[in-house]
Amino acid sequence: MNNNRKAMILILIGLLFISLILNYKFYRTNQERNNYYTIYINDFFYEIKNSIEQLDLIIEGNNEIDLHREFSSLTEKLSNMDYMISRVPYYIDGMGGLSNFIGDALAVINRGTNYKGKYIPSFIDDQELNQQEIAYLRLMKEYFVSIYEQLVLEETGQLSESITKQQFIDIINENIFVLGKQDELLEEYIKYSKN
């Protein structure tokens, strides 16, 4: 009976040791995921902020700005955000990299599109900004400002540290992974058409 007791104690010690190792691995994995999330949300915040500033520069710009250069900068920022959004599942569990309006808007700005029988040309081809393009860009800026205002701490102008992962997921789902935003942008463009 003494041998059975010793064997049982050794088995329990072994199980405890295995449990400690597994719990430590789980803890480290969880910490790593949280670090990825922190990096991701910070990068996302600054990409939104930089995109708003770039949109302001283009919309409010005067004849002295080089539209081609400024649109190139904007498309780079939009491309970064589109890539980040498509990578969401790698940083935040429970979120899929669904389609979003940013990638579609990027395509319209760079290449143009056909929408409801109307051709919308690339914004960067003619070195001029017309009323339709300004309307499109203003609405896009409104979308970004809405996201930014939910992320920023007004007192400091920095990313609010109180935003939980679930709040961030809700912000993304409600503002980016929404069907119809691209159509709204295109409708805004068409509303200001001369035809």
Question: Overview of this structure, please?
Answer:
With 195 residues, the chain is mainly α. It has one domain (37-191). Helices cover 70% and strands 5% of the residues. The chain is built from seven helices and four strands; from the N terminus they run ααααββαββαα. It has helices at residues 2-60, 67-86, 88-91, 101-111, 131-151, 165-175, 181-191; strands spanning 113-115, 118-120, 152-153, 158-159. The strands form two sheets. A two-stranded antiparallel ribbon has the order 1-2. A two-stranded antiparallel sheet has the order 3-4. Strand 3 (152-153) and strand 4 form a beta hairpin. Helix 5 (131-151) packs antiparallel against helix 6 (165-175). The chain is elongated and about 95 Å long. The protein starts with a helix and ends with a helix. The model has no long low-confidence stretch (mean pLDDT 87).
Q: What class do helices, strands and sheet pairing give?
A: mainly alpha
Number of helices: 7
Instruction: Detail the poorly predicted runs.
Output: none
What's the mean pLDDT score? 87
List the domain count as a whole number.
Answer: 1
Number of strands: 4
Order of helices and strands: HHHHEEHEEHH
Strand content: 5-15%
